[in-house]
Each structure stands twice: as C-alpha cells, then as structure tokens.
Amino acid sequence: MMNVSDTLSEVKNYIDGKFERNDQNAMDVLSPLDGSKISSIPLSTTQDVDDAVQAAKKAFPEWSGMTFKERVQIFFRYRNLLEQNMDELTKLVQLENGKTYGEAKAEVEKSMELCEFAVSMPQIVVNEVQEVSKGVECRIERKPLGVVASITPFNFPNMVPHWTLPNALVLGNTMVMKPSELVPLSTVRMAELLKEAGLPNGVFNIVNGGKEVVEAICDHPKIEAVSFVGSTKVAKIVYKRATSNLKRCVALGGAKNHLLVLPDANPEMTASNVVASMSGCAGQRCMAASVMVGVDKVQHIIDLMVEDAKAMVPGDNLGSVITAEAKKRIEGYIDEAEKNGAKILLDGRNTTVKGKEGGYYVGPTIIDYVTTDMSVAREEIFGPVISIIRAKDLDEAIEIENGSNYGNAAAVFTQSGGLAKQVMERASAGMIGVNIGVPVPREPFSFGGWNESKFGVGDITGRSSIEFWTQNKKTTTKWNPEAQTNWMS
Ligand code: NAD
Q: Which stretches make up the Aldehyde dehydrogenase domain (predicted)?
C-alpha cells in the first residue's frame, strides 16, 4: 500500500494558501482496499467556511483583474504538473477510493483534459460588440461572479473537482471547495500543485467536513454560486437551500441508467460494453449501467454477458466499493430481488479478497427477470450489479426507461440506425449512447442529466459551464462620430 506524505497523513483545511487545522472534531479516513486507516480529516464548522470565504473574497479583485491569458498560463503549468505527477495522483485515487490503477489513471487523464478545455477559454469566450445606431455601441462582456463553491462526491476524487475548478477559476472566480469526507486526499495534492503552478493564495480554498460545511456554504451571503455533485437526496437539499438564499446553483444527483439491448445488436460488442459499464469503478459511476432492458430475443447476449462478467475479479480488475455500509446496502438489494422472485445469474455477495480481508468487495452481479416494481429496478444501487428487465418490443423498452425518476444516461445497442434514432429522440435522459455503454460527452460538450439527476439550468462542464460561472455586463456607449480634432487650434 502507498505511503502518504505528511500533508496527507493528517488532512488540513487549505485557506489563503496555508494548510491549517483547528482540532475540534476529526474523522478517520479509511482505505476501502483493505479497511485500514490512512488519514483523518477535520469536521469543519461554519467559522472555517467563513474564514475560507474571506480569503477567497480578498483574493478576488486581483485575480479577476488579471487578463484571461495570465490566468490561463497557470493552468497550462498545472495541467503539466498533473501529467508529471500522474503515478502518484493515480495511486492516491486508488488508495482512498478503491478503484483499479487503470481506472484511477483514466480519471487523472480526464482531469488534464478538463484543464485543456479551460486553457482554451480565451479562444472561446469572445465578447460581443455591435454599433446599434450611429455612434452608439452595445457590448456584452462576461464577468466572473466572485466567490463560488464546489461540493463533490466520493466516486471521482480527482476528476469531479476538475469539472468545476479550472473553468470557474480561469473565468476569474475564486473558490471554496468541499470534497467528500470519504476521499479528501486528492484535493490536498491538487492545492499543492496549483500553488506550485503559481496560483495566488486565496484563489482556491478547501474546507473539509460533512453536512455542517455544506449547509454553511449554502447559507453564506458572500458565496455567489454553488455547484454540487452527489446523490439526488442531497442534491435536492443543496439546490433548495442555496437557491432560497438567492444563489445560483446547479446540483447533479444520482442515476439509474437503462441500456436497451435489441436482438440485432452485435452480441460480443454489446455484452462487453454492458459488462464494462455495470462493473467499471465497481459500478460506482453516475454513468454506470444499472438496468438492461432486453427487447425480445436477447438470451444469447445475456449468456455472453455472464461469461464476460465472470472475468471481472474483485481485488484484481474489479475494485472495491467505498465503505462497509455500501457493501451491506448493495448486498441487501440483491437479497431483496432474490426474495421477490428475480433470478441471480451471477452472485457477487459475500466476496472477500485474500490478503485484503478488511476491504469492501462485491463481485459482479447479474440479476434476471427483474420487474419494474422491484427496488433493484427503481433505486440507485451504486455497485457492480445489473438488473435485466425483459420487454416485448421497443415501445415497451422506452416506456420502462422513461418510467425512472432519474435521467442521467440511456443507451441503445442495435445495428439499425432507424431504431437507434427512435431511442435518441424518445429516451428521457440527458446523455444518450448508441452502441456505447458509458456515453460521457467530451469537452467542449457539456455533462449533465435530466429529471432527478440534475437540478438547475445548464450543465456542469464544457460550454454550458461558461454561462454558469459568469454574468454578462452590458455596456452602451455613445460618441459623436463627427468629432473634430480641434483642440490644437
Ligand atoms: P452524497 O450525496 O452522499 O455526498 C455528496 C456531498 O454531499 C459530500 O461532499 C457530502 O459530504 C455531502 N453531504 C452528504 N450528506 C449531506 C447532507 N445530509 N447535507 C448536506 N451535505 C451532505 O454522494 P456520494 O455518496 O459522495 O456520491 C455518490 C452519489 O453521487 C451517487 O448518487 C452518484 O450517482 C452521484 N454522482 C452523480 C454525478 C452526476 O454527474 N450526476 C457524478 C458523480 C456522482
């Protein structure tokens, strides 16, 4: 197991360029790989949030007064530091989150890509100006909001913070970030590398903790915008509380993604895509496949899926789930489905990994003959589990997909362009895949779901985030175009 540095063995808040910790309450941070204690974090208070906001507020005039190009230079350097420190950052994600090395590395690479979009902002964000009548010009300029906040979940300790941080900062805002208390280590290294890249003190701050910190962020009068990523239950709380305090808010919630498999789908490609989607990151992705709707004759594809899933080995190419409670919850869902008459084709319950008996592992699980009233069909499981619902035709399959309260992603597997088009048009989800199990849009396209998978206007990354992190200043000027240079006479 990786040894962590001093700044990581006892996590501190990062305020005004300094790591500090008031030792009031602390919480242990455990590695899900084997259940061992790897660090501890402060459970910060409203006062800590205020300290961070004051630092961010103090830093704002100078930071927002720099040119776009000056701010961007820091993120060029930072992006390169992510690359230079790739192995360490990858191992850190693995240690605190439990995913495999390859999955963790892909996450850090995505963070680099997010920075690459941010550094292209001077080319994208071009202000508008037009002469609207003789001598009168209207211009629109994008201005930063001020101090903004970002609250992140456990499942992507490195990538999700980069959904917000580079764009918000390059656009001139200063930030207070609250990482998940389960995975606080990656954010500490981000702060250190940002400082190394030349980010001025106070522009980026971290306050660790749980509910109290989130509530203080939603209530703080000097925070202008709140971005949240996490479960739907908390997304609703944050969205209501932040907007009732008259803040801008975008809150991304949970998911229940349906993959529609038609009988003409390429069997091998479909089976491997569905299995990769349900088991990647141990199913702890908001884009993970959770329900497969098999339309008509797809038994041959299900058989292949079971074979493919057997190759997913916990502790090897299948990572752990985040906590002992998560393992219990996931296994509880499988128990309940079995009790209600579903057929367990592959059972990942009671999995242990030799040498890592304290870790939290669930094997790949495939549940067949699930009906729409079962909890495994309706609720987010967030583990390497897929439920198969059988549908007689495409209309019924789309109806099942649209019956979900969520709407993050949906996908269809078919070789018919016309049938794929019907799903593209009719599925009620923000991100649609055709023959792709994890349809994540890449920059400059934006990431965000529909229904109870997202609250607020716009999406969190890409072009859409530019709207979220800025406000328009409209200036009208009038100068006499007939003016003469007569001051010399
Ligand atoms: P979570 O909602 O439990 O926690 C998210 C954040 O909210 C954390 O920082 C946590 O400290 C805070 N929090 C938790 N309970 C709170 C409360 N009662 N009041 C105020 N704040 C609270 O989510 P999680 O378990 O860390 O992450 C997994 C969830 O995130 C899944 O539902 C997953 O689908 C979702 N997720 C969604 C997306 C997306 O893009 N839609 C992306 C990643 C994760």
A: 22-474
Pocket-testing residue among 176, 187, 231, ligand 1, by greatest number of atoms within 8 A of Cβ? 231
**Ligand 1 within 6 A of CB of 209:** no
Enter the pTM of the model: 0.97
Q: Give the residue numbers annotated as catalytic, written as ranges.
A: 286
Assess whether pLDDT exceeds 80 at residue 9.
yes
**Banded pLDDT at 483 (limits 50, 70, 90):** confident
Ligand 1 atom closest to the CA of 460, numbered from 1 = 40
pLDDT digits (tens, 9 = 90+) for 305-325: 999 999 999 999 999 999 999
With a cut of 0.90, is the ipTM above it? yes
C-alpha span between 337 and 370 (Å, rounded):
7
Residue 34 in contact with ligand 1 by CB distance below 6 A: no
One-letter amino acid of 366? I
Q: Which amino acid is at 14?
A: Y
Atom of ligand 1 nearest to the CA of 154: 26
> If we measure between CA atoms, which residue out of 191, 201, 92 comes closest to residue 150?
191
